[in-house]
Amino acid sequence: MIKDTVEKLINKYKTNSPFILAHKLKVNIIYENLGETMGYFTNDYRIKFIHINNTLSEDECRFTCAHELGHAILHPNVNTPFLKRYTLYSIDRIERQANAFAVELLMPDKLLHEHPECSFYDIAGRVGIPPKLVVLKKQ
């Protein structure tokens, strides 16, 4: 399901850039000092925002944007920061889905086919996917 959603987005907008997709989907991106937090997504009065920590590297920004875009598309009405802080609700499944979305977006099958000389993990590293999350890629 997540892979299909990502493939439809890439085909429709002809890009896998999370920044371009956010712009086209009218999701605002705000860079700010978030301390230890890499980023989060909010939906305030139907206005969508991705908040990205302004201290992140370029690769971390790209992955964070892709992850938060996953929340914007898959969980637009779920406030994970609130759930994490004020409830006992486990957000593990929601976070895993957002991570899977980011992995599929940043490393689509087309990219793998275009670079058969590169290993799976080399490509993941080049597009900024954390090594521990590569396992979320659906073949």
From TrEMBL:
InterPro entries: IrrE_HExxH (IPR010359), Rad_response_metalloprotease (IPR052345). Residues 24-130 form the IrrE N-terminal-like domain. It comes from the Bacteria. This is IrrE N-terminal-like domain-containing protein. It comes from Propionispora vibrioides.
